[in-house]
Specification:
The structure is a homodimer. Chain A is of the alpha/beta class and about 290 residues long. Chain A folds into 2 domains: about 90 residues, 3-Layer(aba) Sandwich (Rossmann fold), CATH 3.40.50.10860; about 130 residues, NAD(P)-binding Rossmann-like Domain (Rossmann fold, 3-Layer(aba) Sandwich), CATH 3.40.50. Chain A has 10 helices and 11 strands. In chain A, the strands form 3 sheets. A 6-stranded parallel beta sheet of chain A has the order 1-11-8-7-5-6. In chain A, strands 3-2-4 form a 3-stranded parallel beta sheet, with helices on both faces. A two-stranded antiparallel sheet of chain A has the order 9-10. At the A-B interface, α5, α7 and β6 of A face α5, α7 and β6 of B.
C-alpha cells in the first residue's frame, strides 16, 4: 500500500494557482468569506482559507456581520456581494448559528460566484456534464487526488458510502461522467443499504463519506482497492491534550494493509478542499473576465 | 412472474388527473406543444400528448413554426411562451430538425414551465431532494410504475443500465432519494462497465435504458428481480407489415420467466411518459396559482 498525501498534492495545486494568478493582468481574483458567530471550527476554517488565498495572491475579503443579524439582513448582504464587480467568489461558512439557515442560501449566492458549488444550478450542471459551473470542493478534491495519483476510474467499480448533497451525490456524478479519468461504474450506498460489506468488497475505488468514525473495516475492503476517506470525526481520547483525536470513516489499521492506495485522516481529502475552493475562485474570476 | 401493465396504470393516472382538473376553479391548465418539422415519430408523439391533454381537460396549444425558422426565432418563440400567463407548461418536441439544437433549449424554457424536467435547475432540484421542481417524465413514470406495483425500493439494490440525462441519471437520483418508496442502493452501469452481467445479476430492481435492442438476457437477471425496460428500439422484421418490430432493451423471452415483475415493450414505460407530462402540467398550473 501507499499513502495518498493530500497535503503534498494540495501544495502542488496551490503553487500552480499562485503561478496562474501571478500571470493575470489587472485586478486579482477576490474571494468573500462570510462568517457569522464564533464557532471555533468556523473560525479555524475561515482563517485557513484566508491564509491560502493570501499565499496564492487571491484577495480575501473576510466579512464578520454581527451574530444578531436576521436572515433577511444576511440575504441583503449576499445580494450586495453578488452585485459587487470586485468580488468573484462568495463563501458563507457553515454552520451558521441559529436562526440562520444555510439551505436557503444555496440559491441566494449567484451561481456565477458560487465557489462552494452548492447552488442548485451548479449541481444540475454537474449532473449534465456541463463544466461551465462550479463543482463543490470536497468532491472536486477527491477527483483531483485520484487523477494525481494516476487512478483512472474507467472500467472501475466506484462505491460511494454516503449520499450527502455536498459529497456523496456530487462525487458519484463526477465518477460517472463520460470524460477522461472518470467513466466509472458507480454504486451509492447509505445507512439503508442491506449487506453493505458485500457491496464495498466489490469496490475498486471506495469513497467513504458517511460521518461514522472508523466505520469501514478491513473485512469490507477488497485487496488492492483504492480507499478515499472523507470523514473527519472527533473521537473522545483521554490520552490527547485536546481530549479527542481526529479519525476518518475508515478504520485505518485494518484497511491500510489491504489497500493499494489510501488517504490518511488528517492530511488526505481535507487539505484538498481549500485548494479546490481557490481553484473555483480563480475560475470565477476567469468567467467574469470572459476567459473560460 | 407478472406483467406490469403500463397502459392500465397510465389510464388510472389519467383518470385521477381528469378528476383533479375538473375540480379546478377558473382557467384550466394549458400545455404548449412546439413541433418543428415533420418527423413522423414527432408527429405521432405530439398527437398522443394532444389527445391525452384533451381527455384530462388540459388545454393543448400546438405550435407548428415553419421548419425554416432559425435558432434565435425559436428562442424568441419560447420566450413568448415563458412570458404568457395563459401557458403553464412548455414542451419542445425532440428531435428538432437541423440546424436547431435541443440542448440549448434545456435552459431556455422557464424552469417553472419546464414540464419535461430537462432544465438544469430542475435536474439540480431532483439531486437536492427538492420536490418543488419537475422530474423528467420517463424517470417519474418508472417510479410511479414501481410504487403502483407495490415495489418499495428501500433496502433494495437498484441497477440502472445507462447514464443518459433524461433517463439513467435522473432515475438513479430518484431511486436514491431519502423518501418513502425510494431509499434504494443504486448502481449505474453503462457501455464502459466491466463484467456487466455480474453486476446486473445483483439487481433486485433492474432498469434497462441503454438503447440496445434485447441487450439484457436471462442469464444477466437474478431470479425474482423486477425488470423495467425503458428501451424502444426498431428492429428490422420482414414478417411485419411496417418492415420492423418494436423491441425493448430486454430480451423478453429469456428474462420474463425469471422476473417477478416485468414491463412489456410496448405497453410498459412508454404510456407512463405522457401521463407524467400531464401530471407535470397540472403541477405547473398549481405552482402558477400558488397551490403547490
Amino acid at each position: 500500500m501507499a499513502l495518498i498525501d493530500g497535503n503534498r498534492i494540495a501544495e502542488t495545486i496551490v503553487a500552480e494557482l499562485k503561478a496562474e494568478v501571478a500571470a493575470l493582468p489587472g485586478r486579482k481574483p477576490c474571494l468573500a468569506l462570510v462568517r457569522v458567530g464564533d464557532d471555533p471550527a468556523s473560525i479555524s476554517y475561515v482563517r485557513k482559507k484566508e491564509k491560502t488565498a493570501a499565499e496564492i495572491g487571491v484577495t480575501g475579503r473576510v466579512i464578520l456581520p454581527p451574530v444578531t443579524l436576521s436572515q433577511s439582513e444576511l440575504e441583503t448582504l449576499i445580494d450586495g456581494l453578488n452585485a459587487d464587480p470586485a468580488v468573484d467568489g462568495i463563501l458563507v461558512q457553515s454552520p451558521l448559528p441559529p436562526p440562520q439557515r444555510t439551505s436557503g442560501l444555496f440559491r441566494r449566492v449567484s451561481p456565477n460566484k458560487d465557489v462552494d458549488g452548492f447552488h442548485t444550478v451548479n449541481l444540475g450542471k454537474l449532473a449534465q456534464d456541463d463544466d461551465s459551473g462550479f463543482v463543490s470542493c470536497t468532491p472536486a478534491g477527491i477527483m483531483e487526488l485520484l487523477s494525481r495519483s494516476s487512478v483512472d476510474l474507467a472500467g472501475k467499480h466506484v462505491v460511494v458510502l454516503g449520499r450527502s448533497l455536498i459529497v456523496g451525490k456530487p462525487v458519484a456524478l463526477l465518477a460517472l461522467q463520460k470524460r477522461a479519468g472518470a467513466n466509472g461504474t458507480v454504486t451509492v450506498c447509505h445507512s439503508g443499504t442491506r449487506d453493505l460489506p458485500a457491496i464495498t468488497r466489490q469496490a475498486d475505488v471506495l469513497i467513504a463519506a458517511i460521518g461514522r468514525p472508523e466505520f469501514v473495516t478491513g473485512d469490507m475492503v477488497k485487496p488492492g482497492a483504492v480507499v478515499i476517506d472523507v470523514g473527519i470525526n472527533r473521537v473522545a481520547d483521554a490520552s490527547k491534550k485536546a481530549g479527542y483525536r481526529l479519525t476518518g470513516d475508515v478504520h485505518f489499521p485494518s484497511v491500510e494493509p489491504k489497500a493499494a492506495l489510501i488517504t490518511p485522516v488528517p492530511g488526505g481529502v481535507g487539505p484538498m478542499t481549500v485548494a479546490m475552493l481557490m481553484r473555483n475562485t480563480v475560475k470565477a474570476h476567469a468567467l467574469a473576465h470572459g476567459r473560460h
